[in-house]
Amino acid sequence: MKFKLPKIKKGLHWTTVMSEKALLAVIGIATCIASAQYLLTMYEAKEILLADLFMLFIFVEIIGMVGAFYSTNRIPVTLPIIIAITALCRLIIMQSKNMDALDLLVEAGAILVLSASAYIMSLKDRVSLEKQKEFKNENDTPS
User: Fold this and answer.
1) Which sign, positive or negative, has the C-alpha torsion 44, 99, 57, 53?
2) Contact, 65 vs 79, CB < 8 A?
3) For the chain, what are the domain ranges?
4) Closest CA to 109 of 80, 93, 85
5) H/E/C letters for each residue in 7-25?
6) Are the C-beta atoms of residues 51 and 73 closer than 8 Å to each other?
């Protein structure tokens, strides 16, 4: 018995799309709840530290990533990289007093690698957008 894979793939594609959208909605809602809980904790402590602000930035970036998916139907690769950079900065700030110098250098090196990769990915996006424009212009011009 031979299966027709293109029909199966086409028939199951909607499940992938819907599950992706549903899970991202759950991530967005959970992030909003987590940020509200974090704000409540900050309010109860009556103290706002730099690490707290970095945590709020992480929440905002996650919500932005979910919003970017819903507006473009794709997640830009640079957003998770930026979230990782922010998380590492927060970790360094929280633990810098008790941290070994080598660990600090390794985490700073990780930030440098992530920054370079975000820059390279932004160049890739720029180049691909230019290629799309060129392709569109080539197809729009009469022969």
Assistant:
1) positive
2) yes
3) 5-140
4) 85
5) HHHHHHHHHHHHHHHHHHH
6) no
CA dist., res. 30 & res. 12, Å (int): 27
Give CA–CA dist 59/32, Å, rounded. 8
pLDDT digits (tens, 9 = 90+) for 72-92: 877 778 888 989 999 998 888
- Contact (Cβ atoms closer than 8 angstroms) between residue 82 and residue 38: no
How far apart (Å, rounded) are the C-alpha atoms in residues 35 and 29? 10
Closest C-alpha to 57, from 29, 35, 42, 72: 35
Q: Give the model's pLDDT for residue 20.
A: 85
pTM over 0.70: no
Residues of the chain predicted below pLDDT 50: 1
Cβ–Cβ < 8 Å for 58, 87: yes
Eight-state DSSP code of residue 1: -
Token pair belonging to 21: 């959208």
Q: What is the largest CA-CA distance in the chain?
A: 70
Given a contact cutoff of 8 angstroms between Cβ atoms, the answer to whether 55 and 38 are in contact is: yes
